[in-house]
Amino acid sequence: MFQAIAHFFKAGGPMMLPILLIGLVGMAIAIERFITLLKAQQHTRAMWARVEPSLNDGDFDKARKIVGDDNNPLGRLLGAGLAMQGAVRRRDDVEKAMQEGIMEIVPRMEKRTHYLGTFANLATLVGLLGTVSGLIGAFSAVATANPAEKANLLSASISEAMNCTAFGLGTAVPLLFMHAFLTSRTQNLVESLEMAAIKYLNVLTLRTNRAAQGAVQNIRAA
C-alpha cells in the first residue's frame, strides 16, 4: 500500500509536492477551525442554559455575574447587552449595542475558513499545471526519442499528467467539503447567537412594559 502511494506520488512529477503542501496546510486550518467552532458551540449551549433562567426572572445582576468576563461569543454578546441594561431606556439602543457585538464576533468565527476555498482552487489549478507540463513532456519525448523508447517515454509523461490531475482533484474535493461544512456550522452558531440576543431583548422589553404599566396604575391609584 505504502509502495503504491509512493509510486503514485513519484510518477506524478514535481507538481505533486506543491499540491501536497496545499492539502496539508488546508487540512490543518480545517481541523483548527472545526475544534474552535465545536468548543464555541458547546460553550454557548452551556452558558445559555445557565443564564436563561436569570434573564427570564429579570435577575440581570445574576446574569451579569454568570456572563462575567467570559470571552466566549455568547458571553461577549450578552455582556454588551447587559452593560446597556439600566443605562438606556430604549430597546433600539440595547439592540444596536448587541448588533455591534455580533459584528465583532462573526469575523473571528469565520477566521481562516475562506482559505479552504482558495486552497481547493489552487490544488485544482496546480494539478492542471502538472497535467499540461506532463503533456508537453510527452510530446517533446515523442519528437526527440528513438522509436524504441517512444512508447515508454510517452507512457511515463502521460502517467505524470494523469496522476497530477487526480491528486489535485483528490486534494480539492475534501477541502471544498470542509469549507462548506465549516461555513454551515459558523452560520448555525451565528443564528443561535442572534436568537439569544432576540430572547434577551424580548425579556428586556417585557420587563420595561410591565414596569411602565405598574407606574401608570400607581399614579391612577394615587
From TrEMBL:
Into which family does the record put it?
Belongs to the exbB/tolQ family.
Where is it mostly found?
membrane
One protein family per Pfam: MotA_ExbB
Q: Which residues cross the membrane?
A: 15-35, 118-145, 165-182
Question: Could you tell me the keywords of this UniProt record?
Answer: Cell membrane, Membrane, Protein transport, Transmembrane, Transmembrane helix, Transport
Assigned GO CC terms: plasma membrane
Q: Which GO terms describe its biological process?
A: protein import
Stated membrane topology is: Multi-pass membrane protein
Residue intervals of the MotA/TolQ/ExbB proton channel domain: 71-195
Quote the subcellular location field of this record: Cell membrane; Membrane
What protein am I looking at? MotA/TolQ/ExbB proton channel family protein
Superkingdom, taxonomy of origin: Bacteria
